[in-house]
Amino acid sequence: MKRTMTVFAALVTAVAALWIQPSAAQAAPYSSGNYGAFAYEGSYPTIGGCSGTFFLPSDVPGGSVQYASWQGRQVKLEFYYSHRCGAYGRVSNAPQGCTVYVYRDSNGDRNYDGVVGESVDPGIDFAYTKIANNLNGRLAKATLVCRDVHGSWALAATDWY
């Protein structure tokens, strides 16, 4: 019985040690300016009431989908919009070193005062931002920035919408 308890204790300790080990690093979302000042900002597009309401608008000046060639890949930037919640950006087929941003203005003047971004996490090739509220006269635009350790970069952007 004592041996069984010792084996059990060792097993529990091993499982606990594995459980508390950090998993692969995940990038923290980035924001600055007055981002978070409006409804839904600070939430991902999967939040209740917003999920399923986003679409790629066909009337975004310059297009709601943009591409950049980066490290032998065709990286795709998408700008999604919801009449209910605002907008978010998504990047796909992207290596680490790429970040998608959504810039938002507060009054429709195309000068951003809030920004939110998300970088591509290790082991995956996509990222999407939290919501930027570009409702009620506010505008937003999505931007993709990819950089490598040598300072080379690639850029794609949608126009304000």
What does this structure look like?
With 161 residues, this protein is mainly β. It is built from one helix and nine strands, in the order αβββββββββ. The strands form two sheets. It has a five-stranded antiparallel β-sheet with strand order 1-6-5-8-9, with no helix packed on it.
Short description:
This protein is mainly beta.
Descriptors for this entry?
single chain; 161 residues; mainly beta; four-stranded antiparallel beta sheet; 1 helix; 9 strands; 12% helix; globular
Sketch the topology as an H/E string, one letter per element.
HEEEEEEEEE
Question: Which band does the percent of strand residues land in?
Answer: 25-35%
Number of helices: 1
What is the strand tally? 9
Q: What percent of the residues sit in helical stretches (DSSP H or I)?
A: 10-25%
Q: Enumerate the strands of the largest sheet in spatial order, edge to edge or round the barrel.
A: 1-6-5-8-9
**What is the terminal separation in angstroms?**
70 Å
The profile of the biggest β sheet is:
5 strands, antiparallel
Indicate the radius of gyration in whole angstroms: 20 Å
Unreliable stretches covering 5 or more consecutive residues = 1-25
Assign an overall shape. Answer: globular
Structural category: mainly beta
- Overall mean pLDDT stands at 84
